[in-house]
Description:
Number of strands: 26
CATH superfamily of the largest domain: FAD/NAD(P)-binding domain
Bound molecules: flavin-adenine dinucleotide
Distance between the termini: 51 Å
CATH class of the largest domain: Alpha Beta
Radius of gyration: 22 Å
Amino acid sequence: MKKIEEPSKIIPVMTETDVLVVGGGPAGLCAALAAAREGVDTVLVERYGCFGGVITQAIIGTIAWYRYAKTVDAGGIGVEFERRAKEMGATINIIGNIKNPEMVEVLEQEGLMVNGEPTYEVLETEIFKYVADVLIQEARITPILHCSAVDVVIDNNTIKGVITESKSGRQAILAKRVIDATGDADIAYLAGAPFRKSPKNELMEVTVNFGCSGINIGKFLMYIYLNRGSIGDWGETSGKEEDTFSTYLVEPFNRAREAGEIPEDVTIESYWTNYTDAGEITSFNGIHMTDIDCTDVWDLTKAEIEGRKRVMWAVEALKKYTPGFKKARLRTIGSSLGTRESRKIIGEYNITEHDVRNEARFEDSIGICPEFIDGYGIAILPTTGRYFQVPFGIILPQKVENLLVAGRCVAGDRISHAATRQMACCTVTGQGAGVAAAVSLKDNVICRQVDISKVQKILKEQGVRIE
Ligand SMILES: Cc1cc2nc3c(=O)[nH]c(=O)nc-3n(C[C@H](O)[C@H](O)[C@H](O)COP(=O)(O)OP(=O)(O)OC[C@H]3O[C@@H](n4cnc5c(N)ncnc54)[C@H](O)[C@@H]3O)c2cc1C
């Protein structure tokens, strides 16, 4: 690759803070809220124009779709998101307008409904942009949008801040503690912390999500009822999930392929997540593209453009071959590609497949996650009440001091990623990182030496279940 030398220059310090959180997805939001609520100055930096990460950028409102009648989870800020969103009219009741008693019975049997109430509601992802703003303002966090962290300020292996690029130019933000919630471990990588990344052809697929309007929901639900998909359609299950209801929809796309309207080598299989009384299905998660490295700008560009082409094919197939879709229109395309996997830090502890499959317990637990694996052809749902504990060691990178990492890039092996990447788990690692950063500051110790019993006590006070 041809190279040029970039001249060094003196740049302004945009702001200084106690805790800097980079990335405003589920993990970053929780990290910033948890730190600020412990009374430390907190800045939250996000490269796009709204907070929420995959929720608001890729239209994924199913923060709690894992929840069944017997599921236990950590609570904390993840559950607060749902509660506050509901209070602000930013949720959609997934089964609210199902009147068909047979379908209600199915949902009750599945554990998706208890005493006529749904076990979870889907976030209305457009309004969640506003919900996140309100939560940030209430907690007196300093928000910075449209600003990318592109380098680190580091001294003697201790992180001191980041360099940013925005319309205001190249500037620094100095911080006593930094939390990397970029999803891709950008900050840990730039700071020289060890990480791993699977070969490109083994990374999880990326997705351009879309929504439709103008649907006759009654007709569509009857079609779904008569052509019920199940979790067994996804891949290997633990047995109990085999016949569990799933919104897996593939027939219209297969028919379009057979008719030569979708190329032979393109697979479209969609999970649709929620519908509204206004005749919308707000999110189709069906365009899955492999062999894309989401830390490579050429790959990102290719996937966005190819993804949108496939969305157009998918909408045409839905209109032509799906009952209820005759008058349907494309409503939205996610403002960014949805990405599932890239760099994972090598942590003080690296959580394993064995841990997430066997209810692991840890002395340094910062929360719990229901036994839930979704990825690499495995689908295990938390229908039983089984759960694993999330250790502090997976958010603590090696070599770099005063840096914590939260969200999908925490330390762990390939299969454990299919558990820790879930938004519920990202909220746990985010909240844990925020509290740990605040405690280490107040006690004047580096993050690696934080008193974990103090962190656990505060997490409990913040409503997190850690045992
Ligand atoms: C299509 C799709 C469907 C999914 N469905 C579900 C589901 O139904 N349920 C579920 O629980 N999980 C689901 N997941 C997984 C889950 O959404 C993600 O793993 C989770 O959002 C990761 O959270 P995060 O906070 O770590 O990262 P993200 O949500 O990716 O947030 C990272 C944030 O950091 C910002 N950022 C990145 N780099 C920088 C930088 N250098 N400077 C400044 N800002 C930066 C990004 O813009 C983004 O806002 C899905 C994922 C995808 C892609």
